[in-house]
Backbone:
């Protein structure tokens, strides 16, 4: 008998507490109509989705309630079964943290019917639902009287939890036994403990604990439920009470104390939920009234016809026992050749084998001798206790064999020979220690020494005496060696031992074998049993025979049988206290076993018999023979062309996991599975007996109604009936034909093909008139019927000019088939010739609209009830508009499945629909006619809700990295296509009105949520919501800032955070040393005007000193975390790097002008002395100090044609007179900050071919500030140079040609600006060429007009944009401890105006990283006298040159 599922057991246990509570129907709405107060909402009502919500255990459930006209009144969610308040408004009231509400209280009106505003929707969310969450939930508007809607939640666990609704068989529930205090206190914990029930599941071992709540998950305890249910029944037979309460037989296993856990087999998934309360009540009532079973039942075979049965009285309700009933059932009588030839009673008394013997024994007796049995026959014996209320369960069954004819059980056992007086030997030899005499001088106790090492050590002084006395003058060494004793232990067996040491400790574990050898040597043990053999070897048992031993056979009390499987290499299993013959049961088929037998007397176990190996019979042949006669469901599925993917379901042993997986794919093929499963049989009687509700019994005959999904909980009940019925019930008659002759009809048909077990046939017929339907679904009884034995029938006396409906079913003693076809024939007066009519399938039935919209209708119907199970059926669907007449307006659609969707229909229009079925036998009559309307069309309108656990909707705060739930509600008809966009990207799109999407790992750019709905009518609607993604602050630091002592320095960090962070600057974050806002420091947090989540942390150091130099740490923190980033400030050296006087002397400035040279050039002194103008170029070169000040000059308006002055180059006289003072001012301002040119540029031969190694030394001026060098090289005479940037003082140029000369220069840069070019060198791949000069540099005249316009443009924009770009420059410094070097030429490299010189390759740096330049960046070298023309800079370069002074300015000749 199949068992109930554990989760259902707990659910029904808890239902007893609430037995008096009444639950409304699945989805109802209650609206009071009494008068309301003036302040209550007028016209308030609710809308609930049709049908319940079904989710799997562990998933999240969403129940949606739409409240109209709430007017601010709170909406409550309650659990209906106990009226527990879950939420009030947007607040969770229950302690269950899994419960919350999704609701948006916005008052923004929405277009379209149905929902007045965003706050109409109240969605109850239950996270990670459990089976105990199933039931009704109530959405209630807190008014007087209240307005309610009910919502059913079905939680489907792994066992597919059955529904809670009652059925018609529950009409007697008012008479269910009640629970007394004694029954409720029934505690069977001790039984559970002895049955090894897990400690965590002991809460189910008490009725009181179950009613109060165990706190345990039933599914986790499912493996323990068989033992728990057995203990709960407590050995009483509660089946009579369960039958009286109309509990189906499939659900009576708990009444017997049985429980089979739910497996993946579909037959174990059946519903007994509605009967569990009655079952439990019967159990607790029976605990008080019924006796427990007898105990210690034993059966002994006395001879070939007698068994002796003994037992002990029950322990519970013993005083009420009125009698015992002993049941003796003959299981099998074995072959006669195994008995004496004089006995042949087997052949004459086979009828006795099938009839159990029931013998009543008075309550004052506890034994019975059963007589008149069959020889050498297997019997099963049970004993049951009875009283006036009922009975116990039978005792455990004992199987035994009667003896073969002429054999008698010897019940008398002779005394075994006495043991030698070892104790007296020890005492006389001087052993005076009591413990040693008691253990080492008693051969029956020497095995106990193996338990204690101390015993052996204490008795070591008397070892020679004790072991010598135990040997009793005999050498037991051969026996000990055969039993596996090691060599150091063999002296113990001979008695020749004088001392004991640690080497003998290993002998302790062999003391049992040693003792057995002593007893065997004394001659007091029986010998080995003889003639060990087997008979009647079957697939799962064999009968073992043996003869008594040759020695001391009369002293044998019993035998021990040892056996093991050779395939599994198991240890021997022992059956103790057995007699020959013995039934060795529970064996595996087609398996090798090894057995042996030992005789036991009062002294111990004798020598073992020889081993015997045998093989059990194979069960494969038996299964094949049985399957050949069985109904073949798989062949039926193949004939009806079931989809291949659905074939795993075409079995009575299908897996529930396959059903869950394949159900969406096989929905259209379910009717084929049901028809083949039913096999043309009518299983309704079995289904009624097994508790299938009436609404689902049509499934039992293969003809389900439209509501097939409600029958899923009973699928195990139905499949069990299918499997049982196809072996018992007859199949359907086939090929039904009729011959009509005037008022007579001759019927003829073929017998069922599978299972020729029909005993008769029933012909049903009925006259049809205007008030009679030609066919009614599920009506298998007509007005007239006739039973015949043959496959033909003759009906006479029919009314002429009438129409008759006929069909035939097969039947036997177990039930009947269903009709395979129906006849609809006319009996007319004018029929003079015989007219033949063939049977046709019945019409399709249950035609209905399963779903609808404005432009489509989804129709479904059930296949013909009267058809062969393996018959292929096709359908024709007819539809038209009633206002359109004529056959040409009827549309026909052919399909092979019982359902179809009509598309492209007209909104708000009525259609007429009907269906016909087609088989090989013919076409059916039309089904019922259906009138169906399409919906009116309404434009779509949309709402969006966003939430994050455990925040209650609406939400404006979602944490980055967490999850958020988005609910898009799109109303309208037809159903809109709902699309979810996140930050403009389509995430999901479905045709639905409610779309719930969970977004995991939210990032900060997911801040714009948009729900879009469109159904093709009206204007598409969208609802958007801007949400804030909270996150830990992130910081971008400005790196290292260089400053001179006394300067004001600004250290900045860019912070992005939500919510707004708190900030601090630390000098030492580990020691928490802060920077305090005061006279020398100013700390600011400036919000970004454009982006609300971005801020600028600013530390202003006023008049920086050496104490202020070092590292600072930007710290930002909010509720979600904190971040720390370093920034640094370094002081530049203030020591002059260059003495202008020294430079002037080296440049041979005339003595008359040498006094104008000092640490800074004196311009006034030069202008007043015309003779110094000849040395002006030299003076300016010395004042430039090897640095490039063009950026500073350009920012002060020096024109392009005069910028060469700002790096010490030669310019026109007008430029010198006009702009020399400005150039000198730039020299003074930045001279100490800019780097000098690199020194000692050299070329060396590289180890790789076609390459050269360039090296140089850092500049003498500000070498510590240089972080970038730019190298220029080109083939000698070429116009197109190459360049690369590096932070090292060497670089390898590759891709050069060995026979080409190259020229090269280098310049240095820091965060303030650049140096001038180094002295040029000439090189080849062999290295530098000593004394070689670089190629002369030439260029044309500059365009004065272009320069003037460019300068005016630069001057105009510098004033407006200066501060802004200075600010941006500080933020774009590298954040990894260094300062970013910004190079405008990286951002802009225009195409060359003319093709480069392809005949002189310039090579590459290290094979990559070379930036191709359109022209040589001309830099004025010492001695160059020709003016240079510069490319007009972009606006970006102008700003950089004017503000930062960083980067290189690209020039060309």
Residues:
């Amino acid at each position: 008998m199949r068992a109930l599922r554990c989760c259902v057991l707990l659910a029904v246990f808890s239902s007893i507490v609430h037995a008096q509570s009444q639950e409304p129907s699945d989805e109802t709405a209650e609206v009071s109509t009494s008068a309301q107060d003036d302040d209550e909402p007028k016209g308030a009502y609710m809308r609930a989705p049709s049908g319940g919500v079904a989710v799997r255990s562990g998933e999240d459930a969403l129940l949606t309630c739409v409240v109209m006209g709430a007017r601010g009144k709170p909406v409550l969610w309650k659990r209906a079964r106990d009226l527990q308040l879950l939420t009030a408004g947007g607040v969770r009231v229950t302690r269950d943290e899994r419960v919350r509400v999704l609701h948006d209280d916005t008052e923004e009106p929405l277009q379209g019917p149905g929902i007045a505003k965003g706050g109409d929707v109240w969605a109850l969310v239950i996270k990670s639902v459990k089976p105990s969450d199933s039931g009704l939930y109530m959405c209630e508007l807190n008014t007087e009287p209240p307005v309610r809607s009910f919502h059913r939640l079905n939680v489907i666990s792994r066992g597919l939890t059955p529904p809670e609704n009652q059925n018609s068989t529950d009409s007697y529930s008012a008479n269910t036994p009640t629970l007394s205090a004694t029954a409720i206190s029934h505690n069977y914990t001790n039984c559970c403990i002895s049955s090894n029930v897990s400690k965590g599941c002991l809460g189910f071992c008490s009725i009181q604990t179950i009613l109060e709540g165990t706190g345990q998950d039933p599914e986790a305890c499912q493996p323990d439920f068989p033992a728990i249910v057995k203990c709960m029944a407590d050995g009483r037979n509660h089946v009579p009470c369960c039958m009286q309460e109309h509990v189906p037989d499939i659900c009576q296993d708990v009444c017997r104390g049985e429980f089979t856990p739910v497996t993946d087999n579909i037959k174990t998934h059946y519903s007994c939920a509605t009967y569990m309360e009655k079952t439990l009540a019967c159990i607790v009532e029976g605990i008080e009234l019924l006796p427990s079973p007898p105990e210690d039942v034993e059966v002994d075979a006395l001879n070939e016809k007698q068994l002796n049965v003994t037992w002990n009285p029950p322990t519970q309700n013993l005083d009420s026992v009125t009698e015992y009933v002993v049941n003796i059932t003959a299981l099998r009588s074995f072959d006669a050749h195994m008995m004496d030839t004089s006995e042949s009673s087997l052949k004459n008394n086979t009828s006795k084998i099938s009839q159990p013997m029931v013998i009543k024994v008075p309550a004052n007796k506890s034994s019975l001798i059963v007589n008149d049995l069959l020889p050498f026959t297997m019997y099963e014996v049970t004993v049951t206790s009875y009283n006036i209320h009922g009975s116990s369960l039978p005792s455990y069954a004992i199987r035994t064999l009667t003896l073969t004819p002429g054999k008698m059980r010897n019940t008398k056992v002779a005394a075994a020979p006495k043991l030698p007086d070892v104790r007296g030997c020890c005492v006389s030899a001087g052993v005076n220690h009591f413990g040693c005499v008691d253990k080492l001088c008693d051969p029956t106790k020497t095995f106990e020494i193996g338990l204690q090492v101390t015993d052996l050590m204490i008795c070591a002084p008397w070892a020679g005496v004790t072991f010598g006395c135990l040997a009793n003058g005999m050498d037991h060494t051969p026996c000990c060696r055969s039993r596996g004793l090691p060599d150091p232990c063999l002296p113990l067996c001979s008695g020749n031992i004088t001392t004991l040491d640690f080497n003998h400790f290993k002998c302790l574990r062999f003391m049992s074998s040693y003792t057995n050898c002593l007893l065997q040597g004394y001659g007091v043990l029986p010998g080995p049993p003889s003639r060990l053999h087997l008979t009647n070897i079957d697939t799962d048992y064999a009968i073992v025979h043996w003869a008594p031993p040759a020695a001391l056979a009369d002293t044998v009390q019993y035998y021990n049988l040892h056996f093991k499987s050779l395939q599994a290499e198991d240890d021997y299993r022992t059956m103790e206290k057995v007699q020959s013959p013995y039934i060795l049961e529970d064996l595996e088929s087609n398996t090798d076993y090894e057995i042996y037998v030992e005789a036991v007397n009062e002294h111990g176990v004798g020598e073992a018999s020889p081993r015997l190996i045998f093989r059990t019979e194979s069960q494969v042949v038996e299964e094949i023979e049985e399957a050949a006669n069985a109904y073949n469901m798989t062949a039926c599925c193949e004939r009806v062309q079931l989809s291949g993917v659905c074939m795993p379901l075409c079995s009575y042993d299908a897996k529930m996991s396959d059903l869950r997986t394949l159900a969406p794919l096989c929905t259209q093929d379910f009717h084929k599975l049901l028809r083949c499963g039913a096999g043309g049989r009518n299983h309704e009687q079995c289904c009624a007996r097994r508790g299938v509700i009436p609404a689902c019994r049509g499934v039992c005959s293969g003809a389900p109604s439209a509501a097939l999904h409600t029958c899923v909980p009973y699928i195990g009940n139905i499949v069990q009936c299918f499997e049982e019925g196809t072996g018992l019930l007859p199949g359907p008659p086939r090929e039904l034909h009729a011959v009509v002759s005037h008022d007579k009809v001759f019927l003829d048909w073929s017998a069922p093909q599978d299972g020729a077990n029909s005993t008769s046939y029933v012909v049903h017929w009925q006259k049809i008139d205007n008030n009679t339907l030609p066919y009614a679904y599920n009506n298998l009884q007509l007005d007239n019927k006739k039973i015949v034995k043959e496959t033909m029938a003759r009906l006479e006396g029919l009314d002429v000019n009438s129409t008759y409906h006929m069909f035939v079913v097969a039947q036997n003693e177990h039930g009947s088939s269903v009709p395979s076809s129906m006849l609809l024939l006319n009996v007319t007066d004018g029929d003079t010739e015989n007219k033949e009519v063939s049977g046709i399938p019945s019409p399709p039935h249950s035609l209905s609209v399963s779903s609808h919209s404005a432009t489509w209708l989804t129709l479904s119907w059930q296949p013909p009830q009267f058809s062969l199970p393996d018959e292929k059926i096709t359908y024709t669907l007819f539809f038209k508009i009633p206002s359109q007449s004529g056959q040409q307006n009827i549309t026909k659609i052919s399909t092979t499945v019982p359902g179809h969707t009509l598309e492209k229909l007209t909104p708000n229009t009525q259609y007429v629909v009907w269906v016909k079925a087609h088989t090989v036998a013919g076409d059916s009559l039309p089904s019922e006619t259906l009138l169906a309307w399409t919906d009116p069309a309404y434009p779509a309108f949309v709402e969006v809700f966003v939430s994050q656990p455990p925040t209650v909707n609406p939400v404006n705060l979602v944490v980055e990295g967490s999850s958020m739930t988005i609910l898009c509600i799109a109303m309208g008809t037809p159903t809109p296509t709902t699309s979810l966009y996140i930050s403009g990207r389509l995430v999901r799109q479905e045709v639905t009105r409610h779309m719930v999407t969970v977004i995991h790992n939210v990032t900060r750019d997911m801040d714009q949520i948009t729900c879009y709905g469109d159904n093709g009518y009206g204007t598409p609607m969208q609802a958007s919501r801007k949400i804030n993604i909270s996150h830990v602050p992130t910081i971008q630091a400005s790196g290292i800032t260089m400053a001179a002592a006394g300067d004001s320095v600004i250290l900045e960090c860019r912070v992005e955070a939500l919510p707004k962070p708190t900030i601090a600057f630390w000098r030492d974050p580990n020691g928490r040393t802060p920077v305090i806002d005061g006279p020398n420091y100013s700390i600011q947090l400036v919000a970004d005007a454009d982006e609300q989540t971005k801020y600028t942390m600013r530390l202003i150091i006023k008049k920086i000193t050496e104490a202020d130099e070092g590292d600072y740490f930007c710290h930002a923190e909010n509720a979600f975390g904190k971040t720390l980033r370093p920034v640094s400030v370094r002081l530049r050296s203030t020591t002059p790097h260059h003495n202008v006087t020294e430079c002037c002397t080296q440049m041979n400035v005339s003595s008359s002008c040498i006094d104008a040279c000092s640490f800074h050039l004196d311009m006034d002194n030069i202008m007043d002395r015309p003779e110094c103008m000849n040395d002006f170029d030299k003076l300016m070169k010395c004042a430039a100090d090897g640095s490039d000040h063009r950026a500073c000059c350009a920012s002060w308006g020096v024109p392009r044609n005069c910028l060469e002055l700002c790096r010490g180059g030669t310019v026109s006289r007008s430029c010198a007179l006009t702009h020399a003072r400005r150039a000198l001012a730039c020299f003074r301002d930045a001279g100490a900050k800019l780097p000098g040119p690199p020194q000692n540029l050299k070329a060396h031969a590289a180890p790789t071919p076609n390459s050269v190694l360039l090296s140089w030394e850092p500049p003498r001026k500000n070498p510590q500030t240089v972080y970038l060098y730019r190298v220029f090289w080109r083939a000698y005479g070429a116009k197109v140079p190459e360049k690369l940037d590096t932070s090292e003082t060497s670089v390898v140029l590759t891709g050069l040609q060995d026979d080409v000369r190259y020229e090269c220069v280098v310049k240095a840069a820091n965060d303030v600006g650049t140096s001038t070019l180094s002295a040029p060198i000439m090189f080849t791949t062999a290295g530098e060429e000593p004394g070689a000069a670089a190629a002369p540099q030439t260029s044309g005249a500059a365009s004065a007009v272009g320069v003037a316009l460019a300068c005016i443009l630069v001057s105009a924009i510098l004033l407006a944009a200066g501060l802004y770009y200075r600010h941006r420059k500080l933020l774009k410094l590298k954040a990894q401890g260094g300062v970013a070097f910004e190079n405008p030429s990286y951002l802009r490299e225009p195409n060359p105006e003319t093709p480069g010189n392809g005949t002189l390759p310039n090579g590459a740096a290290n094979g990559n990283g070379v930036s191709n330049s359109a022209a040589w960046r001309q830099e004025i070298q010492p001695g160059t006298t020709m003016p240079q023309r510069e490319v007009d800079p972009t606006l970006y370069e102008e700003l950089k040159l004017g503000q930062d002074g960083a980067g290189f300015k690209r020039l060309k000749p």
Remarks:
- The mean pLDDT is 77.
